[in-house]
Structure formats: structure tokens, C-alpha cells
Amino acid sequence: MSSGLTEAEASRRLAARGEPREPQTSRSTATIVRANAITPFNAILLALGLLTLVFGDWRDALFLAIIVTNTGIGIWQELRARRKLDELAALVQPRATVVREGTTRPLHVAEIVVGDYVLLAPGDQVVADGTLVSSNDLRVDESILTGEAKAVARGIGDEVRSGSFVIEGTGSFSVAAVGAESYAERITGTAREFRHPRSPLERAIDRLLYVLLGVTVPLGAMLIVALWKQDVAISHAVETAVAGMVTLIPEGLVLLVSITYAAAAVRMARAGALSQQLNAIESLASVDTLCIDKTGTLTEPGLRVVSLVPAAGVTEEELGSALGRFAASSEGQNATLAAVATAWPADPERADDVVPFLSRRRWSGLRLGGTRYVLGAPETFALGELDAPVREYQTAGRRVIGFGVTDGEFPASGGTLRQVKPLGLAVLAEELRPATTETIAFLTDQGVEIVVLSGDAVSTVASIAGDAGIPERGPCRTGEDLPDDDGELDRMVAEIGVVGRISPEGKRRVVESLRRRGRYVAMVGDGVNDVPALKASRLSVAQGSGTQMAKAVSDIVLVNGDFAAVPAMLAEGRRVLRNLQRVTKLFVTKSVFAAFLIVAIGITPAEYPLLPRHLTIVGTLTVGIPAFFLALAPSDGPWRTDGFLREVGRFSVPAGVAAGLGVTTTYLVALNVFDLGLLQSRTAATTALIVIGLYLVLALEATSTRRARLVGTMCGLLLVTYLLILLVPGLRQFFELAIPNPASVVLIAVGCGIAIGFLWLTDDRFIPLRSRPE
Q1: 414: which residues sit within 8 A by CB, 6+ positions away?
Q2: Which CATH code of 2.30.30.140, 2.60.40.10, 3.40.50.12780, 1.20.1110.10 fits the domain covering 212-265+570-766?
Q3: Catalytic residue check, 293
Q4: Which of 73, 121, 203, 724 has a Cα-to-Cα distance from 416 of 20 to 30 A?
Q5: What global pTM score does this model have?
Q6: pLDDT given for residue 321 in this prediction
Q7: What is 304-429's CATH superfamily?
Q8: Active-site pick, 60, 293, 456, 530
Q9: How far apart are CA 352 and CA 742, in angstroms?
Q10: Which of 215-219, 529-533, 723-727 has the lowest mean pLDDT?
Q11: What is the pLDDT of residue 187?
């Protein structure tokens, strides 16, 4: 093995290269600004605002200030979340094992220079361009660079490029290019280009926005044609068109989703969970099936040797000494080898022949001093009288590995291991993580089914699963039991709870089968053997102690490696989902009300009941401010993701129609029956709409007595804010309102009564605290 660069030479080359540019670990500032500012609805509102400024009263363009404020809040919140997530992302950024002056040590990507000698092991990310100096069954995933998902074999002299990952085997390469001359600057961003589909709520809101956009265009066109036919003055036409169309647009909904996701990501970051997609927290709420690896998830990632079982004629000292030599001399240390090396330390030796461990063959080999040693799963070679203790220990939940020697040559890659003389067994213990049983109990109580997929012996996996409290769902299976036919596999997975001795490809097939059955599947894993399943799942969660590849392709990284963080994440996701579902109803109610008003009055010769500035007050007090606070508030209740649009429609359509009936009645009677004049009539309509809107907030959110008090207090303060606008002369004149006279007060009460009565007759859900827990 090369001794690598000297520290002095490495420092000189690093200084000559200059300060490297920090990699972008999340969305850029420009991307965040564009996503929050450049939307179809903002474009429509901007056009309406410019028309108002040119042809109408500038006070009716006040909604532009609200848009700018909302957009600014959204950008600030996402930038704040990005800073927190970038700090956390630094803890899981890829590092490399480099040889310098004959000593191996881990280095940050930015510290690597041309000429460095870098070691590769399964799960490692290639952090620079270079040429392979050694290769032992090395296979790399270059899908990030080529788009080809199949692993590629690489041998001595072949080129490797940054951004790819080691799937199997070991190797080393000499760095040829770093920084701007290579793919190194793309490591974090490109490695994370793999993303799962948009979350259920995002897809539902996308459909909702398309529907609202489809309604806005024809209604707006109809309103414009009606005004043109009436041959009204341009200022009056702009005033009416803007008043009608501004209310149709749920201008704050998309921003609110971004703000809520960002706030949730910050909350989880404080708990040590890095959300690499802002929608991942919400997506977790939709999970109904959780596939997990055993080691590192249910159990602690580290192992310890609890006993050795020597074969006949072999002493425990001889077995331990040979195991220690093997572990110390092996490349690409894994948890098993690390445990053996700790229990039986030895000096590393140069191996004349190396067969690295591969998941598909489940053994590894070394030739040391003329002796060929083999370490692997007990079933990979005949153990004779040791078979009984293997079964005994595996049934007790222990991990057992066999160790022996062979006189023949090591078989070629993929070949069958033969003629192994067993030297004995090493028995390793795994301990359940703290709070694992409580975590499993919480998940099952929430209706989440747990499926354990592990490469260990099925008896060991079943024992650990039982200790963790995972409910049995049919007989335990092995990877060999999985049928090749997808249809048969789909039928089998309905009863799968534990699968042992399963390959990485088998894990992927199980996850895909569960998805075909309509399950929303999350996968939790930490090793390179979990990566195919992580990619196939709807939501992937990696342990912070896991391989670089597992962390790079995952939506969420548990930086502290604590599986017990999942319940808090699940609760956070469901809180986000519940809140966004509820506040979406307020935005859509406003749009339904606008559509009702356009059809009822907008296309008639009658004066429009509300000015754009009135609608700015109404939207701010009854939708904008309540939605902002309620989206971030604690919540309880249902969290279903299916039927989202139907559920929104069941609330918003009657609510919008009721508001339209109440406001139209108040306005038309005030204007045409009581002859109160346009100013008083519009004030009455605005006041009625604010009262009805705040009532809808209370009806929507009063799910308990305590919550009703809190939400009622908020609604009361918002109503007082509106009354202050009426009482302060300057504000009253600015918004073109009047202090309601007695007749207006009566008509406001009548209009609100009509709206609320209509709601009570429509559905019990519009009655606060009706049939709800105290």
C-alpha cells in the first residue's frame, strides 16, 4: 500500500489551490426567492395591481403590499430554515479515508488534494476524480453521473469520478482532480438529486390550485365581458374586476405551505433530524408501513463478541488469535470485524489474497502467511457438530459467524465456497436501542405496520423483533422464500412481518410490492445494502451513523442515529398535515365566496358590494392572520391524506355559499330596500363578511374547550382590530368605510344570521364544539 503524500506536501498543495468554494447543501437563495415570488397567482395579482395603480384608486392596490409582505415572510422563513439545516448537514457531509505518511485518517472533502491516496469501502462516496490503484471486487454506482442504475465493476487503472458510490468490494485510488477541475463541487447537491415524489398534500394542493386557476380565468373573463357590455368608466371597471378577481386567488396558500414546512424542518433539526426535503416531515405523516433494518435501527449499531465456540481440536485462544489476525488485516472494516478486532486485538498483516465481503455471497476471505481464512454466515460452509450451537444462539437472538480455513483457491466472484475446515464460531451480541420498545408500541398504536428486513439469520431477526414488541404478521420468511413472480410476491407480502437472509435486491422487491398494494412505505436503514430499498420507498430515513450512500439518497437523516426520534417526527408530520388541511379550507372558502359574488352581483349592473381595499381587510383578518398562526399551532384530530380535495370541498363550498348569501342579503337590502346609500351598504357588507369569516375560523378550529377559548380570543382581537379601523377617522376614510348606523347593525345581524343558520342546517361541523371532546 502506498504511504501517500507527506503532510507538508499536502499542506503546500492545499495552500496553492486556494480557499475552496463551500458546497451548496440546500436550495440557493435565488431558488428560494424565485419559488416564493414567481407564481402564476402572483403574476395575476401583480397585473391587477398595476391596472389599479394606472386606472383606479391607489388605495385599492393595497393587496400588493400584502403580497410583498407574505412573500418576504416566506423567503425569510425558508432562509432561516436553510441556515439551520446547513449547520446540521455539515455533520453528515461525506468524508474520505486518506493515507498520508503511511497513516490512514479521515478527512473532509475540502482538505483532499491532488496526489492523495484514498481508500474505498462499501457505502463510501467517491469524493474526487482519480485512478484506481487497487481493486478487490469493486463495484460502484455511477447513476448520478450516467443515469445507469446498474452497479459497474471497476478494476486497477480504471477511472473513478466524484459523486459515485461504492456498492461492493474495496479499493483505493490516487486523486487526479479536485475542486473546480472535477465533480467534487457537485458532491452534496448532485448526490442528493435523487428525490422521492411530491408528498400527498403537495399533490393535492397542486390539483386544488389548478382547479382554482381554471375557475379564475373564465369567471374573470365573464366579469370583464359584463363590464364591457355595460360600457362603464374604465376606473369603475378596473375597480370591480380587481375586487372580483383578487378574492378568487388563494394568494397566501402556497407561501403558507412553504412556511409551515420550513418551520417543521427547523423543529426537527433541533431534535437532530435533518430533513433533506422540506416536504419530508409532512410525507412521514402519510406512512402506513415502515420497513426497517435490524442492526443499527432496532439494535445499537455496534456489536460485541460475547463468546467463542471453537471446533474440535481448536482451543479458544487459537481461535481468538486467528480471528484477531483476520480482522486486523481486512480492508473495509464493518461492525462485525470491528467487534472482533476490539475483542482480540492484533497487528495488521499484508494479505496475499483478498476476497472482500459481499452481501450476495455473505463471506470474505484472506490469505495470511500461506493460510486461507474464511469468515462468513454459518450456512455458507459446512460446520458439522457446530450446527447445534449455531441454532441455539440464533434462536436466542445472537448473531453468529463461522470461521475456518480452506486448502483450495478462493472461488472467483460469485463462485461457491467449498472444502472449508471450520475453526469455530464467534457469537456477537446486539442490544436493543433505548426506548425501542416504546417507539414500536407508539407506531403500532398509530396504525403503522412494521416489517423487518435483515440480512441476518431469520431466527435471530425474529427473536430481536419479538423483544422489540413488533406484532407477528404470519410466519417468518427468508430471502429465498420470496417468489420470483411479482404477483405471488404481492400476495405473500400481505402476511410478511420478518424476513431474514434477504439480499439488497430482495429488500427493494418487498418495498416495491408493498407500494403496489397501495401502501405508503417508509424505509429506515443505514447500510449500502439498504440503499435499493431506500430508493424504492416513498420516504427514506437514514441513520446518521450509516454509510455515506444511505445518507445521500435519504429524505431524512437521523443525525444522532436515534430511531426513537421517529415518533416525534411522525407526530410533527401529522400536526403539519392536520393544520394545512384546515387552513386550506379558509383559503378555498374565500375563493368560493368570490365566485358566488361574481355570479350573483358582478355580472349585473348593480354596484359591486366590496372594494379591493375592503377585501384586503377581510382577507387579512379572517384568512391571512388566522391561517399563519393556526398552521404553526399544536393540533389534534384526523390526519387522513386521502380524499383531501373532497374534504376541503365539503367545508369550503357551503361555507363560501353561506358567506355569499349573508353578504349579498345585507348589501342588497341596505342599498335597495332601506336606501342607506353605497357607503353604508358597503360598510355593512364588509362588516358582515368579517363576522362570518371569524365565525368560520372558530367553527373550524374549536375542536376542544381549551382550543375554543384560545381561538375565540384570537378572533375577538381580530374583530376589535376591525372596530378600531371603523373608529379611527383617518383609517375609516382611507378604507372608505362608515360607522354603521342602527339600520346597518340590524342588517348585519340578519345577514350573519342567514349565513350561520344556513351552515347549521348544512352540517354539524359548522357548530363549534358540537359532538367534540371536552
Answers
A1: 360, 361
A2: 1.20.1110.10
A3: yes
A4: 121
A5: 0.69
A6: 93
A7: Calcium-transporting ATPase, cytoplasmic domain N (3.40.1110.10)
A8: 293
A9: 101
A10: 215-219
A11: 42
